[in-house]
Amino acid sequence: MKAVSLQTQTMDGQTPRHVAIIMDGNGRWAQARGLPRTAGHKRGAEAVRGVVEEAVHKGVRYLTLFGFSSENWKRPDGEVRDLLGIIRFYLRREISELHKKGIRLRVIGDRARLPEDIRALIDDSETLTSQNTRFDLIIALSYGGRDEIVRAARALAEDVRSGKIVPEDIDQDAFSRRLYTDDIPDPDLLIRTSGEKRVSNFLLWQMAYSELVFVDTLWPDFSAAVFSATLEEFDQRDRRYGAVRG
């Protein structure tokens, strides 16, 4: 994909308010260089900083990164430990810089499965940055879209059983309010790296009308220039939300 320049636009233009990214290809990046998969995950974590900076520069307001899926728990124990170690490292190293830049960090997913020390780091990071309003960085950890939908359905069922609501109160807004992303707008744009063309159980409810862009670049090589190119492609899309435009 050719890198292009895109000027920051208003929300009346085509700059996406919310971008979601499936960061794929760390293992293949490492394998191509004869390195352990851990090296790819570390390089991938380093790529996050550049993409966050470029997203802020381009006028994106929300960025959601798929950092660790519910399915990733099925990987070999050693790789899971390495991934969790990188998450610890990122939270400890980056949170102060994010806070200085006015960035709010939020984590979505099943935290109960995460180690206690990582849960504490997440709590501390979210508390520290909770009042920042310049940009929201959302990281999906131990996250699965189907699981999120089941949790929302269960929450609605519990509210009906307790008498807080009646079945007739259940609509799309009521359902959305029980998702992890209840106060976050749905993604305008989903990017997946590494050439794979599937959504992999990510933000299934929220992506009903997201534009999808798939790039061949492996995540560790996903630069600010490639990110800008995806925004340029988004800029060319005609978003109709099911309507017909004359």
- Rg (C-alpha, Å): 18 Å
The CATH architecture comes to: 3-Layer(aba) Sandwich
Work out the count of structural domains.
1
Overall mean pLDDT stands at 91
Oligomer: single chain
DSSP helix fraction: 40-55%
Strand order of the largest sheet: 3-4-2-1-5-6
Care to describe what's here?
With 246 residues, the chain is an alpha/beta fold. 41% of the residues lie in helices and 15% in strands. A 6-stranded parallel sheet has the order 3-4-2-1-5-6, with helices on both faces. Strand 3, helix 4 (116-129) and strand 4 (135-143) form a beta-alpha-beta unit. Helix 1 packs across helix 2 (37-58) and helix 2 (37-58) runs parallel beside helix 3 (77-100). The chain starts with 17 loop residues before the first strand and ends in an 11-residue tail after the last helix. It is an enzyme of class 2 (transferase). Mg(2+) binds at residues 24, 211.
Structure summary:
The protein has seven helices and six strands; from the N terminus they run βααβαβαβααββα. The protein has 246 residues and is α/β, with parallel strands linked by helices.
